Amino acid sequence: MRPKKSFRVGFTLIELLVVIAIIAILEAILFPVFSRVREKARESSCISNVKQLSLCVLQYARDYDGLLYMLNGRGFNFTGCFVCNNTGCSSTSPVYDPEIAANPDLGLRKMIAAFMPYLRNDQIFHCPSNPYARQHHCRATLSVNGSAYDNQYDPYYTSYRFWPTVAWNEIPGRVLVDAGGMLPLLGYGFGNCPTYCREVGPARIQMWSEDLPFHREPHEGPFGKIHARVIGFRDGHAKLYLREPNRIYPDEGG
């Protein structure tokens, strides 16, 4: 008897092409979903960071007679770029610091040093959605999600900016963390206070903010596009804020 012939069974070229096409279609469908889920997780982490920073300042204030930390949390000095911390470099400021005036880079470093006993983790200062974290960038060099170039931005030390004074007529170094303040009505500025301003509580006054919006595409607002930013408020809460934070809107009783 003749031995039986053995045949190798495999995919035909057409079958392989069909499988490759199906995989490509699935990738096209699922990859954007995975990307959105990943960014949503980063967004949640960023909000958590700002909440922790906000609670840290409340703890700091309890140890310092209820007063906010006094210096604006932005200012840097590196090769080819010199930006002065706008409350630590003016000799007329009540919190003038000659060391920061000589080297604005010390402004952020002193701020972080003041808050670290309440945090013990410098990762909190960096948003996972920020691709420029721990990099030096000079002023007017970055624009994200269609926003205008930021006038003073350096994410080397932190992705977030600390605001010791935001409400109208506040004096650096003398701001009580649980005090209210005056914000302008929609369509007006701080120069129109107090006539066109209203009193708000700590839950409506920002204390931390992202300088650039990394999370969502901008949407149309009453004065152009509004960019989503994570904002931390003086009562300790934080959220992704879809409005310009330093204004009173009609639906807020303004």
Please give a structural write-up.
- The chain is an alpha+beta fold and 254 residues long.
- It has one domain.
- The chain contains three helices and ten strands; from the N terminus they run αββααββββββββ.
- The strands form four sheets. The protein has a four-stranded antiparallel beta sheet with strand order 3-6-9-10, with helices on one face. Strands 1-2 form a two-stranded antiparallel ribbon. It has a two-stranded antiparallel sheet with strand order 4-5.
- A hairpin with a 4-residue loop joins strand 9 and strand 10.
- Helix 1 packs across helix 3.
- The radius of gyration is 25 Å and the shape is elongated.
- It starts with 12 loop residues before the first helix and ends in a 13-residue tail after the last strand.
- The model has no long low-confidence stretch (mean pLDDT 86).
Secondary structure elements and their pairing?
Elements (H helix, E strand, L loop, with lengths): L12 H51 L12 E3 L2 E3 L14 H5 L2 H15 L40 E3 L18 E4 L12 E4 L5 E5 L8 E3 L2 E3 L2 E5 L4 E4 L13
Antiparallel strand pairs: 1-2, 3-6, 4-5, 6-9, 7-8, 9-10
